[in-house]
Write a structure and sequence with these properties.
single chain, 3-stranded antiparallel β-sheet, elongated
Length: about 60
């Protein structure tokens, strides 16, 4: 027997702001992201996330 799945969808809306720096062989970046509207399964805290990234180029 085949049973069609119910239509389920979640929408996540957010904003991100970043800064990138590069000097000779080194590059660094920092990004801050914050959800503006959560999904059903995400806690309502709406806390932001900060990402750090670094690289050395040869």
């Amino acid at each position: 027997m085949y049973q069609k799945a119910s239509k389920q969808h979640n929408t996540l809306v957010g904003v991100a702001l970043g800064l990138k720096m590069q000097a000779q062989n080194v590059s660094l970046s920092v990004t801050y992201a914050k959800p503006l509207r959560s999904t059903k399964n995400y806690p309502k805290g709406n806390s932001g996330v900060t990402y750090f990234n670094g690289a050395i180029h040869f």
